[in-house]
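Fold it.
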Amino acid sequence: MNNIIKELSISVACMLDDLDDMTRKDVEHLQDLITKLENGDWGHQPFPYPTRQEAIRDIEKGNNER
């Protein structure tokens, strides 16, 4: 569950950083994560970024395919 919350936090932060580029796909991604929380489908994959700053750095570089 913590992994989903971390991913939600990063996704929202990135969207807030650049509201002009927010797309339907971005909002759907948030909805998918929220649905996983609601359904208890937390998965077993570790969060791919050790820190929020590293995640934002990768996204800014265009490398968000971890």
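DSSP finds three helices and no strands in the chain.
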